[in-house]
Amino acid sequence: MKKINEITTGKAKSLFTTELSDRLIMHFRDDTSAFDGKKKEALLGKGSVNNQFNAFIMDHLESKGIDTHHIEVLNSTDSLVYKLDMFPIECVVRNRATGSICRRLGTEDGLVLEAPLFEFFLKDDDLGDPLITEDHILSFGWAKEENITGMREITLKINKILSELFLNSNLILVDFKVEFGLYDGKLLLADEFTPDGCRLWDIETLAKMDKDRFRQGLGDVVESYHQVADRLGMNIET
Ligand code: ADP
Ligand code: UDP
Description:
The protein has 238 residues and is an alpha+beta fold. Helices cover 29% and strands 33% of the residues. Strand 4 and strand 5 (39-42) form a beta hairpin.
């Protein structure tokens, strides 16, 4: 499968049309950004580790009954996916409080939540990705009720599946963000699941092994992603 035209250049990935109108090539770049694109850097090898990490997680989720846009890995940095009509929404689940929720609610950093907390955010960097409710989504027509319910249920199911997967490798899944889209009216998990879009802490030391290393200038960003991949038994080609 060959790339034809670039149709989207996001902050970390680029999407290309292919000879099949319902399939895209998702290219993972080394570009890394934080704070709604205000901090940017290219981190050598990040695109490659993220592409392969994402494929491993998408395959694992598929094996547990989650429908995803992922079709196959094409090379170290590229994967083939179904072309979706994306919802302009980010679905976040938190098992511990850290990041924006601490800034918003003054919560103690690292607090273990009584139950996983689900939140919707509007995908809009210029507005700083604001927190929104189901009512905002309905009133502004960003998604229909059945898909709102679906996104929430699937994201919470993903949290259960992946919390267990990471725990088996002595990692705490602190929180994560996922996105969804429609393929012929069917709700599919889209975009990516990599350490760029989740928080993973070592179970013993609580060391951060995710994009917070970049956000907070802790160094060894790509190295940490590789360490997580190794712990999960992924065979990453460099
Ligand atoms: P951002 O949009 O945050 O800058 P990326 O660099 O990851 O991030 O860009 C990837 C873009 O591709 C995002 O806008 C995402 O919503 C979109 N996308 C992800 N999966 C699909 C898909 N299967 N079909 C169409 N668009 C997708
Ligand atoms: N996240 C993301 N993209 C975003 C915003 C958040 O992937 O645009 C992820 C982030 O990596 C974390 C979770 O969603 O795993 C919750 O992020 P939070 O709301 O705490 O925001 P942040 O502190 O990252 O601004």
